[in-house]
Structures are given as structure tokens and as C-alpha cells.
Predict the 3D structure of the following.
Amino acid sequence: MQSGKGQANMAYIGAIVAVATIGGLLFGYDSGAVNGTQNGLKSAFGLSEAGLGFTVGSLLIGCFIGAFFAGALAEKMGRRNVMRLASLLFLIGALVQGFAHNQEIFVISRLMGGIAVGAASVLSPAYISEVAPAHIRGRMTTIQQIMIIAGLTAAAIVNYFFQQAAGNDSTNELAFGLAAWRWMFLAQALPAAVFLIALFFVPESPRFLVARGRNAEASVVLSKLFGETEGRDKLAEIQGSFSADHRPRLSDVLAKGTVLRPIVWAGLIIAVFQQLVGINVIFYYGATLWQAAGFSESQALLTNIINNSISIAACFVTVLYVDRIGRKPLLLIGSAGMAITLFIMVYAFSTGTMTGTTLNLPGHMGMVAVSAALAYSALFNISWGPVMWVMLGEMFPNQLRGSALAVCGFAQWFANYLIAQSFPVMLGSIGLAASYSFYGTCAVISFFLVQKFIHETKGKELEAMEG
């Protein structure tokens, strides 16, 4: 059945979505805060390029751990309680990263922050999908991606402010004798505290409540969301979608023996290829990339802000069209567009010459590379950026949603880690052109995989999802 468009309590749903997407804001902020702190990290901890890659990438180790266990824990503790734990880890991780004076403590705090990011990345869109009406579910979940980019943008703006306040050098000291790069991490504590407090004012997911046999509580939540009549009907539909013989468990992702269900393979495709197209090279190493193209540190940080602002605008295009033309067409458009812009970047980079670790591009090729990179980010955020999270939150049947999110979330963040860890090494060994040739090839492959294996979910009730 279709959710009643006239009965849904949109003010209540909007408030819930606003709180849930603070997790996306922190996801973006925690991921982007390291962008522009590399010089400070190298100076404070005496890091090599490989050491920097590990220190930056240690967040992502926590991410794939957090994504995996969050899905499983969410089936036992509830979506809301696990997000509360994540918000607490965000808060502690931000403070420890800012004050750490040895690499080991810093890496441990990065891991803590990463666990929180991984948990929020899979649970926020799933939670939104489980409370939003089907006809606007794509738009509501896309807000998560807008908040992720808003977090990245906020981190870029804060980093730029601190860098400028410290005399254009992030290693210089600011207030209380702390270097500017440390304040870039400490600033995360404020939104983390807001998230923790706000999560005490939203309800638990009605799908989780039904799965745990708490039908009376689920009925109350559904009535607040959709009205008494539709809430009662929806409760019956949700009850019918769960297996009568057991509660949700991790083995539900398997079809026979050790073979994953086809729907889980489809989820793995979009989860992994979202990272293999190389988007997080720009998110995590944007300052390094722009400097390799000849920009100063200040210009590089400012370009990050411009890039993230364009990305937010692109997400609003998704908000307009994801529930109109559907998820699959947007993925196909994104794959084709990203392939074209990535290979334009490859061409521009191939014309340059290296001076040490700095790439010098002739004439207007620097602007060609930057323009292509900005177009690439915009195309990603019209398509694969938000749509992957929309689909992972909605494409699985109720019985296996938490378990499938655990598997796909782990794979997504593991691929993310491999890309982030390998980029500094690739940059130093094979250069930007060859590195981006790999990402461009993955974008081409993703087009054909989506065409063959991904099915449209636009407008379908969660109870109608098949796997």
C-alpha cells in the first residue's frame, strides 16, 4: 500500500529527520577535519608519507568496524540507542584528537571517531527510511548526503579560519598554546554534544520495535507518524514482513549455505563502487591534490570550500529528482559523467612535469584540472553520493535490513580505507594521471554493473522490498 500523503505528520517526521541527519553532519565533519591538518600531523608526530596515510586512514579502519557492528547491534539495541553510543564516541574522539601528543593516542582517538562515523553512516539513512513515507523517502534520505557535505564544508571553513588566524600556517599556535591544526579537530565537539542531546527527543524505529515484539510501542510511534488509521494498517504490514520463525540475525543475508542473497550482492556493488571512483581522494586529500596542481596551502583550503559548496548545491538536484525519475537513472547518469570528467583530469595531469612532489601544469591546464574535479564532485553528489545511502537504507527487506547493512557498510568503508591509504603512495609512485585513470576505469565499470544488477526502488514500501 502507499503511505497516505495527506495523513502523514510531516512536522514530526521533519523533526526526526533533522535529528538523524546530525549524524551525517558529524560523518562529514569528522571525515573532513583532517583535510588541511596534514602539515601539522607530520610536524607533531614526525610522519613519513606512508605514516601520514595510515594516520589519516585510521579513521576509516574504525569506520568499517563501526558500520559492521552497528548493523548487528541495531537489531539488538535499537537504531536510536546505537546512534546515541555513536554520538558519545564522536564527542570523546574529537577531544582526544585535539589534545593527543603522541601518534598512538591520536590513532586510537581516530579509531573511536571512525567507529562513530561508520555507525552513523549506515544507521542514519536506515532510520530515516524506516520513519519516512514511501513517496518522499528518497528526498528525506538525501538530506543525509547534504548534511555530510555540509559537515565537510563546515570543516573546510573552520580549518581555513584557524589556518588564517594562525598566520597562514596551521602549525602555529592559537589560544591556550594549542596549534591551529589541533583546534580543527576540537571544533567537532560542539555538534557531537548537540547530536547526543537531540537523540533523547526522537522515537525508536517502529520496524525495530515490531522485530522485538514491542507492538504496542510501535503502534504509538506509527500513529504519531501517519495517523491512527494508517498507523494501524502499517503495523499489520510490518508484522507480516518479518519471519515468524526467528528474529532478524546476521545469517539472514545468506541464501543457501555461504552464498549471499542477490539483493546483498547488489548492495555490495553500489557500496564498493561508490568508493572505487575515487571521490574521497578529493574529500580527504583535497588540499594535497590542489597543491599538487600548483595551489598554495591557503588557495587549496579555499578551493575545498568552493568544492564542498558546489557539492551541496548538487545534492539539492537529487532532492528534486530522486523520487521523480528514480534511483537507477541517477546512478547511470553519475557513472557516465564521472568517467568523462575523470579522464579529462587524467589528460590535464598528463601534461604536467614533476618538481619533487609538486606537479607543475602548463598554461591553463591547472584550471582545466580544477574545473573537471569540481564537475566530477558535482556529478557524484547528484548521483552516487546520496543515492547509494538512499538505496542501502531502503532496498533490503525488513527481516535482513540490519544484517545487510552490516555487510554492505563494512565493504563500503573497507573500500574507502583502501582508497585513502593507497592514494599518497600512488601519488608518489605513479603520479596523478595514472591514479585517476584507475578511478575513471572504475566509473566506466560501475555504469554496466548498475545497468545489469540494480533494480529500481522508487515509491516502493519497505514491506514490499524483495531479496
